[in-house]
UniProtKB/TrEMBL annotation:
Residues 3-149 form the UBC core domain. It is an enzyme of class 2 (transferase). This is E2 ubiquitin-conjugating enzyme. The active site is at 87 (glycyl thioester intermediate). CDD domains: UBCc_UBE2N.
């Protein structure tokens, strides 16, 4: 396996030595560009108490190209589709090589705290959110309990 760029090594070390509160990101043993990520649902959000599994992959062109991130845990959210893909500006049009893995993870955590049904990826969920936000939040809570609660 080709050696990793210094930047990826530095970012990985920082994620481990100075983790983002509520987020873990650990490189996979077989592929150090592939991270297993957990994000705790933000307090006060419908995702509170949920632990969400994500995968993050750094493409060969990283940092010129944004990381690929997707939810593995099923989630009811207007900006995350059934396949776990995430509609987030820093992963698409607003990506900049100045951003880091931790910035992306913080942005995902912020997206959980404040869903944006006006820029949806899951149109049906966004419609529900716009029609009856309270009911949509209850569904999000129910799904979080069902799919994102760690097994005891």
């Amino acid at each position: 396996m080709a050696s990793l760029p210094k930047r990826i090594i530095k970012e990985t070390e920082r994620l481990i030595t100075d983790p983002v509160p509520g987020i873990t990101a650990e490189p996979h043993d077989d592929n150090l560009r592939y991270f297993e990520v957990t994000v705790e649902g933000p307090v006060g959000s419908p995702y509170e108490n949920g632990i969400f599994q994500l995968e993050l992959y750094l493409p060969d062109d990283y940092p010129m190209e944004a990381p690929k991130v997707r939810f593995l845990t099923k989630i009811y959210h207007p900006n995350i589709d059934r396949l776990g893909r995430i509609c987030l500006d820093v992963l698409k049009t607003n990506w900049s090589p100045a951003l880091q893995i931790r910035t992306v993870l913080l942005s995902i955590q912020a997206l959980l705290a404040s869903p944006n049904p006006n820029d949806p990826l899951a149109n049906d969920v966004a419609e529900d959110w716009i029609k009856d936000e309270e009911a949509a939040k209850q569904t999000a809570k129910k799904w979080s309990k069902l799919y994102a609660t760690p097994k005891q």
